TrEMBL record:
It comes from the Bacteria. Its cofactor is FAD. GO terms for molecular function: (R)-2-hydroxyglutarate dehydrogenase activity; FAD binding; metal ion binding. Homodimer. The lineage of its organism: Bacteria, Pseudomonadati, Pseudomonadota, Gammaproteobacteria, Pseudomonadales. Residues 37-216 form the FAD-binding PCMH-type domain. This is D-2-hydroxyglutarate dehydrogenase. The keyword Metal-binding applies. Belongs to the FAD-binding oxidoreductase/transferase type 4 family. Its EC number is 1.1.99.39. Keywords: FAD, Flavoprotein, Metal-binding, Oxidoreductase, Zinc.
Length: 465
């Protein structure tokens, strides 16, 4: 643990009361949504300015103290967990929207701005911030950038990196870099901005971000369709993509729906029981679009791909249909799920899922498996639920044994072991299944340039050497 005198020095660098060492704070700020590693930070520091962040990094370099960035702590790969005496740098007090440019459709945010705060700001100005996911009410923009967050609208709008116009970052050397300067076109060598997006704080800390906004969508409408098997979902996607510009295309299994229905606060979409469900969304900007959606639905029924379906007729119905998908993660958290966030190209999804489902069923016949995900962009969430009579440690150890087989399938399909949750600590030992030795060597060399003393979120992405 860090020496008390060194912590006293840290206290001089920030506002009074903004270094926390009490047990409750260490517990709260030292973890994220993963439960694999117990938090054990030495202290929590809450800067309010860029200059304070630079001073903290300079202090950490002098004393060779590791720093861990902390935003909304909603991560699912232990990327924001401080498990080895690190000092957590939490950005809760750098939470202001600093500027807005209506002509350029950009907004300058501090890293602690909550995702929903940015979404609401955009709505108030007649615009739209499209990166959206279940944790939008607590996740922060800095963390979204650090993990290149995706979510439910990727099929139309892409990942977080598509919406970052410019960044200010403090590197592991304490340098302040202004990257891209909000330009749309900039062909002047390496785009260092993109290196920091998805780097999980291992190169430096995002201290300011200029985010792009889009026009507000018109009359968003959702459909939930029940299918007789998983293979039917892909021709349904193909049929709708051929006729409509989809803003989302999600899927979930009957087991996922049953868990959400068990809450008792969400109405079922329809009476027909189906093994799999697709949720799609589009802009019904006029009656012709809505009619096209209904005609496509009828075509899918005639082909045997869809057994039943419903289309939202109001904003309330739209929200209720989305709850069927968005409430899954929160609902199954009661069972301490072992999560895998994997992806392949969309065309390979059916065969890919079948192989992984067979492996899990063979080795874990007594475990309940819940599938859901962003099928429109090839991203699947595999969740194995912990039996009530099994300890967390024994359960995680048991699930970890199957990772080798799951990730071998991912590698064979040229997929990713982490589609949108980052690598952190939970996936770092499996990085080689998605990245070649040459790529990993280049990534480590890049880290050494920006963080020569290895103080920035060490042990994340790469296993300690």
């Amino acid at each position: 643990m860090t020496h008390p005198a060194v912590i006293d020095e840290l206290m001089t660098l920030v506002d009074p009361g903004k270094v926390l060492t009490d047990a409750a704070s260490l517990e709260a700020y030292g973890k994220d949504w993963t439960q694999h590693y117990p938090p054990a930070p030495s202290a929590i520091v809450l800067p309010k300015t860029i200059e304070q962040v630079q001073a903290i990094v300079a202090w950490a370099n002098r004393h060779r103290i590791a720093l861990v960035p902390s935003g909304g702590r909603t991560g699912l790969s232990a990327g924001a967990v401080a498990a080895n005496g690190e000092v957590v740098v939490a950005f809760d007090y750098m939470n202001q929207v600093l500027a807005f440019n209506a002509f350029d459709r950009t907004v300058v945010c501090q890293p602690g701005v909550v995702t929903r705060q940015l979404q609401q700001f955009a709505e108030e100005h007649g615009l739209y911030y499209p990166v959206d996911f279940a944790s939008s009410g607590s996740s922060q923009i800095g963390g979204n950038i650090g993990t290149n967050a995706g979510g439910i609208k990727v099929i139309r709008y892409g990942m977080t990196r598509n919406w970052v116009a410019g960044l200010k970052v403090v590197t592991g050397k304490g340098e302040l870099l202004e990257l891209n300067k909000d330009l749309i076109k900039n062909a002047t060598g390496y785009d260092l901005r993109q290196l920091f997006i998805g780097a999980e704080g291992t190169l430096g800390f995002v201290v300011e971000a200029t985010m792009r906004l889009d026009r507000a969508p018109r009359n968003l409408t959702a459909m939930v369709l029940g299918t007789p098997d998983f293979d039917s979902i892909m021709p349904v996607l193909h049929a709708f993509q051929g006729r409509l510009d989809l803003t989302a295309f999600e899927f979930f299994s009957d087991k996922a729906l049953a868990k959400v229905m068990g809450r008792g606060d969400v109405p079922p979409p329809f009476d027909t029981d189906c093994p799999f469900y697709a949720l799609l969304e589009f802009e019904a900007s006029n009656e012709d679009v809505a009619n096209e959606a209904l005609a496509t639905f009828e075509h899918c029924v005639e082909q045997g791909w869809v057994l039943d379906g419903v289309m939202s007729q109001s904003e309330t119905q739209l929200k209720n249909l989305w709850k069927l998908r968005e409430y899954i993660s929160e609902t199954i958290s009661h069972w301490t799920p072992y999560k895998n966030d994997i992806s392949v190209t969309v065309s390979k999804v059916p065969a890919f899922l079948r192989e992984i489902d067979a492996i899990v069923a063979e080795h874990y016949p007594d475990y309940e498996v819940v599938w859901y995900g962003h099928i429109g962009d090839g991203n699947l969430h595999l969740n194995i639920l912990k039996p009530d009579d099994m300890s967390k440690d024994a359960f995680f150890a048991s699930c970890a044994r199957v990772n080798k087989w799951v990730f071998e399938i991912v590698e064979r399909y040229n997929g990713s072991i982490s589609a949108e949750h980052g690598v952190g600590m939970t996936k770092r030992d499996y990085l080689a299944y998605s990245r070649s030795p040459e790529e990993i060597a280049c990534m480590k060399a890049i880290k050494a340039v920006f963080d020569p003393n290895g103080i920035m979120n060490p042990g994340k992405i790469f296993a300690p050497e």
